[in-house]
Amino acid sequence: MPRTRILHISDTHLGKRQYGSDIRREDFAKAFEQAIEVAVDRNVDAVIHTGDLFDDPVPSLPTVMRAADALKPLEEHGIPFYGIVGNHERKNDEQWLDLLRRTSAAARLGKEPTMVGEVALYGIDAVRPSVWDNIDLELEEPPAEAAWTVLCMHELLTPLVHGMGRVYPASEVIDRAGIDLDGLALGDLHQPASSVVDGTDVWYASATERGGKDQEETGVVQLLDIDNSGIHRRQIELETRPFAVFEIAFGEDDGATHARDVLERHDLEGAVAKIELSGERAAVTANEVTQMAREAGAAVVSVDDNRGRVDLDVESIEAMSLQGLDGAIEEKLADEDFSTVALDVDQQVRKADELDTNVNRVADTFAESLRDAQREAFDDAGPEETPEGVESMEVDE
């Protein structure tokens, strides 16, 4: 088969005002534009975006228009842009990708194959955890001319991801897809990662910009070269704003001079300065440290003031202390005029041996209790005591 070249980008989070900064919003836009330039410069056959094109389900009009403008070079060079919907931008109705599709700037991948050369591309939007177990992940069979199949998703999957909330096995996705998958191109994890699962190449593209202080491997895209020998990935770095992440620890006698000394040890020129203040409370304020960092050349400054906080060893808290807390809560509740159903909810949450971790089931249980209490209240009141204009009341589920 002839070589097919695809650029894989993800998690661009357009419109994100990180640390409340318009500078950072501009940075996220520029990183996306850089990625598009890479696609044009490398003469790719297509671009795939695996979710969170936008940072918000309701991006501003300027953000949407800038995204459309950024995609114009692809259209001019005949390079299609294919995407799926991520969890950040997900809406309950028509998606922003659908709007961009109407401008011919983008197309949305689905469970039917989209051919790029001899590569069949598929896409499944970010799935809400509440429906994961029951959602249909089965894909249509690829056409006979498809030599390779690649599924795009926006999920956290093991064995590439651990300890980050709700994760699912990649092997489960591969099995439920119902076809032979050669590649699983993923978004949502803001760092590159790859593995081979049940004979399928599985990888994350990373994000195009740094979304947090711990995300040190962002600002990259993945160039895919697909030929008879397989799927070959090459990581390309984008030019992004540097981060300076550090701590200023204060002693009892430390003040502004100490803060400036620490700041001078770091290259803050044009950087995002993410600073944690720790140790003893001092005369210098967080706002003053912010101003010092700006004077040292930082473009964006975010300061977390954790001075004077006491770290509690939860494991060392005696059971009697917990009982004392419960007693104090019950004493306070006794002074309030709460309904029986409200007190019942308190007991279930605070004293149940094992509260169901399924939010929907818990909500159903509490809703049923509310309906029962509602019926009893209106039955006791009788027709003549029903408030005027009130015919019935239903709990919105």
What does this structure look like?
The protein has 2 domains: 234 residues, Metallo-dependent phosphatases (Purple Acid Phosphatase, chain A, domain 2, 4-Layer Sandwich); 63 residues. It is 30% helix and 22% strand. The chain has 9 helices and 17 strands. The strands form 4 sheets. The protein has a 6-stranded mixed β-sheet with strand order 4-3-2-1-13-14. Strands 5-6-7-10-12-11 form a 6-stranded mixed β-sheet, covered by helices on one side. Strands 15-16-17 form a 3-stranded parallel β-sheet, with helices on one face. Helix 5 links the parallel strand 15 and strand 16. The longest helix is centred in the C-terminal third of the chain and has 23 residues. 32% of the residues are buried. The C terminus is likely disordered.
> What is the CATH superfamily label of the largest domain?
Metallo-dependent phosphatases
Instruction: Give unreliable regions as ranges.
Output: 381-397
Please state the second-level CATH architecture of the largest domain.
4-Layer Sandwich
Percent helix among the residues?
Answer: 25-40%
Sum this structure up briefly.
By secondary structure, the protein is of the alpha/beta class.
Please describe the topology of this protein.
Blueprint: E1 4-9, H1 22-41, E2 46-49, H2 61-76, E3 81-83, H3 96-102, E4 107-108, E5 114-116, E6 119-124, E7 148-154, E8 157-158, E9 168-169, H4 170-177, E10 183-187, E11 193-197, E12 200-204, E13 220-227, E14 230-237, E15 243-250, H5 256-264, E16 272-279, H6 286-295, E17 300-305, H7 319-334, H8 340-351, H9 359-381
Parallel strand pairs: 1-2, 2-3, 3-4, 6-7, 7-10, 8-9, 10-12, 15-16, 16-17
Antiparallel strand pairs: 1-13, 5-6, 11-12, 13-14
Helix pairs in contact: 1-2, 5-6
